[in-house]
Specification:
The chain is of the alpha+beta class. Helix content is 32%, strand content 41%.
Length: 85
């Protein structure tokens, strides 16, 4: 009888110029140890966003990237964009 397993891993984390953190979670399906399928789910987090429930490695990157100056610059840029709209 074949054994199927499902593994989820964060395989990419990117920090953009404005401080947005993007990450990709890969779900890998294996049959008897050989990967037979893979799907992806992408998530983006903006500076100062609540990180409750996010993976620990993503939280660590956010905490390192989201300095007070990055958060302030992001908020100023968002306010300026709202005024132009």
């Amino acid at each position: 009888m074949s054994t199927f397993t499902e593994t989820k891993v964060i395989d990419q984390i990117t920090v953009t110029e404005n401080g947005t953190v993007l990450y990709r979670e890969a779900t890998r399906i294996s049959k008897d140890g050989d990967q037979i399928a893979q799907t992806y789910h992408r998530t983006s987090l903006i500076p100062a966003q609540d990180l409750t429930g996010q993976p620990a490695n993503v939280v660590a990157i956010c905490n390192a990237a989201w300095t007070p100056s990055v958060i302030a610059a992001y908020q100023v840029a968002q306010a300026a964009a709202a005024e132009r709209a």
